[in-house]
User: What shape does this take?
Amino acid sequence: MELELLNLLLVLVAAWIGGSLATRLGYPSILGELTAGIIFGPALLGILAPTETTAVLAEIGVLLMMLYIGMEIDFRELGKASKAGLLAAIGGFLVPFVLGYYAVLGFGGSQMGALFVAIAVGVTSLATKSRILVDLKLLNTRIAHVLMAGALISDTLALIIFAGIISFADAGSIELTEILMVTGKAVLFFVVTGLLGIYVLPFLGKKLEKAGFTNRTLYFTIMLIIAIGFAELAELAGLHSILGAFIAGLFLRESVFDRRLSKELNKVFYDISIGFLAPIFFVTAGYNVTFDVFQNNLTLLLVILAVAVLGKVFGTALFYLPSGNGWREGITVGTGMNGRGAVEIVIAGIALNMGFIDNEIFSILVFMAIFTTATVPVFLTWTTSWLRKRGELVLSSSEKQGVLILGAGPLSLYIAKKLSGKNPVSLIDSNADNCARATNMGLRCIQGNALKEETIIEAEGHEAGFFVSLTNNSEINVLAAQLASEVIGIPNIYVSITPSSEGANIELLEPIGASTIFAKKTDPYKWDYKLENKDFEEISVEISEEISSRNFLKQLSGREGDVLPVFYENTDGKLHIYHYGAELEPGYKVHYIK
Amino acid sequence: MELELLNLLLVLVAAWIGGSLATRLGYPSILGELTAGIIFGPALLGILAPTETTAVLAEIGVLLMMLYIGMEIDFRELGKASKAGLLAAIGGFLVPFVLGYYAVLGFGGSQMGALFVAIAVGVTSLATKSRILVDLKLLNTRIAHVLMAGALISDTLALIIFAGIISFADAGSIELTEILMVTGKAVLFFVVTGLLGIYVLPFLGKKLEKAGFTNRTLYFTIMLIIAIGFAELAELAGLHSILGAFIAGLFLRESVFDRRLSKELNKVFYDISIGFLAPIFFVTAGYNVTFDVFQNNLTLLLVILAVAVLGKVFGTALFYLPSGNGWREGITVGTGMNGRGAVEIVIAGIALNMGFIDNEIFSILVFMAIFTTATVPVFLTWTTSWLRKRGELVLSSSEKQGVLILGAGPLSLYIAKKLSGKNPVSLIDSNADNCARATNMGLRCIQGNALKEETIIEAEGHEAGFFVSLTNNSEINVLAAQLASEVIGIPNIYVSITPSSEGANIELLEPIGASTIFAKKTDPYKWDYKLENKDFEEISVEISEEISSRNFLKQLSGREGDVLPVFYENTDGKLHIYHYGAELEPGYKVHYIK
Assistant: This one.
């Protein structure tokens, strides 16, 4: 067989251009990939056409993408998902699901077609959001947390219901014995994969680790085999392979194999799926779109769009009421969950392949995905500014607020004490006296070597959202930051580098995404000394215009000489550690010592 | 279309089991993968059969593998390849090529078939060797260096000749204008890809870096697009796509994009090709093998085997004569180059697909690959022990012998002075006095911060085979070792960790493959002091039985108290830095200070 290389090349280039443009405009790349498929594919220009090669790669891409999506979901997070998130997920799924189902039936569609459309309008996209949340400065709000949890639960729900429908569709009859068989097989699948995931895989992981296997490629191959094995199990159970790959991802997350390797391989699976194969799927999905739908089925298109948007937004808001967070927040969450994404297109594509929906319905679903995803930023901007104006934008209480400080010198204790009112703070120091002092102040201190994984785990690094390296040894600070970032995965990392350091330098922080605490090289020892001798004053100053932490510090030092900005306080009164790269806005306060 | 998931799963599992068994036995995994394909495929058990899915994945796998093989070849190394390596490569390719060609013609084969068989018997496998060289303790011999260079050159040669043959085969006529056209297109291909590789890609790389793109997945996608683009260019020029991918690999090696990212992505391409897609190719290649050949064409099989083995071994030896290294070394190099591997199977598979050879000839080539590869360790053991007994096993002079020492304290200077007779030694120290002292002793010293890439590059870290971190600050030592390993790629890294270090620990060395210098935690400061005050004695002791460096040190300390083993000297009188994980053999000497 001949590879259709030119076609593959063009598909990859189209995906890349489309995806890059979309992300540049603040949208998920899938939007650009789909659009590229529509524009360059048979629907419009006809430059691209389906080939066997892209078909195979697209299918493998979907499997690997589902594996990756599964890997991204943290069981523990799901377990801890707030009641609010659960309510939003259920409402946001169920209401458009029911409305969508009856809408299609009302237009004379088949029952199976109606069910697939129903799932498609019910799904919520995961990938769409994080970028938008950053742009709208929502990351630390309760809404963001509800959105995350809601999307995760709703995707999981959608996949399970989808698999159930597929399995009944295959059975094709509604005899009781048949239904029992189908249900039994599905249950068996969850039991078997559950047992494999909970007992066998960790056992296998431990055995391999004991046997001293550290070859990354070996683990990569094993993970692939497990993913495809689970996918095959799902098919054997009459479910769809993507559910199997997804569940394999849930289990392969990180606990099975060595933590560092798992993190690395997560990235490899991301590269392969999101950087190579999945875009092929989305471009080729665009091929199946037809514009005929605007002539033949415009009413249905509009109805499904309405059902998708209104059902999602008001369904979410309705079910969100019992959370007690207010209907306005419910509507905001609804607008945030209104995007569709990868999972919807995957499900629609499968339905098309299996003949449950035709090209026109498929096109409607694609246009619906594009429209709803494209409008998320717009609607979400409206609703959040509405909340903001009413002062109802509540900050999250469930984001990881834990602060882990390395080094328990006077400066660390000063910071810890200030934060400990609102954040769970832990300290690590190898010096017993320092730790004892921290404990006497009512702070939690672990005595140990922060460059050992065990110490950070003992200090509950997994629960920490912030890691501060504040010893007098810049190199220890950098090495600990590496561990905290790469092995433990703490998201925000602030590192102290002394100006006299002839070793560690700021360049070393970039690969791990850490930033310099105090927004400049600082000698903690000097400030330790001042704090120890109570030779300092605390001053606060309000920010009058938007400015970066680095520039503000320059201005401040210009005026005041040698100062140390320790915190900035946003308009809600929340204290943040002052660090390089922070953006200060009017109304923020900076707390510094002198 | 439906993915043949179960089949894919079985192929992956078969490849994995076959590959693991082979590597466990000391053979390249491709041998196990081919055999698995023969055993489980149509030839024997018939459990596996060709599917569209595996066909597509195998083809993509071959492209990505050729890309990876290209990435592994260092232009500069090729340029520096010794005359001996070039001679071995030419002889080892040409002689079996000519013999193979006439053998097939003699048996009534077609001209094209004969040409393809000729290339197949001429090829030398790259992957087969490194492991065997380690097992036979040949890594530091001249033979190893000749083998490496020889295989690289011979593979490159084979690919180019192969592409040329393909392009003439496609033309299908021998009119002069046709031949000129074909040649012109091929030359144009090399010119265009050369210009792209030398000018456009580095320009693109710099632009992306300036624009601040650090997203690894983006670079991954771009590299894929470049590889497939080059492959398509090759096809347009009438050459084969694998040559394009290979050449893309040559250029994408490391100079185009950010060094750290390139290193990471090389690994990702390795994971995808060697850990996923290429094994699918080798298993499915095994499907095409037929055992009929033993009945119908046994003579031809034996003749080709003989041509392959004898032509390769004696051809290499013959052309090797002008190197002046002796005919016995030539024969040893010949036995080392006698393996066939990935490239041969790829070329044979293409010939089969294009109809130039039939299943029987293909089977002969596969059996030949298996036989020659499987016998490399056997023959090479014979020939090297023959050389060893005669005392003709010459150590390599062209391996990277440079030693880069971080820290120019008395202990560093002591080590540098001892090594500087045979190795080019450089030191790095941030302290100007230390550096001046080193310079006064006639040593090269760079004053600067070793945690900056520039400093290591200025100290010619690229030329170094050994990196020794020997400052009193264990954390600086570890961070510098990371840089030397991950960014610069120095192969042997020895790090000093002080026993009092409450930070850096030995666990941190494992992920970068570094080992502890002196085979124990050591305080350089203490020994600096003794050396400074000439308060030490130098003692040598001969090893009587095989022992690890760690255990020997334990014995030695038990007898002698506090000692510092600095070097071990092998039987050829070469000094090695004493480090954790070294294996000491009878006759070695350990030099320690007390």
Observations:
- Chain A has two domains: 59-389, 402-593.
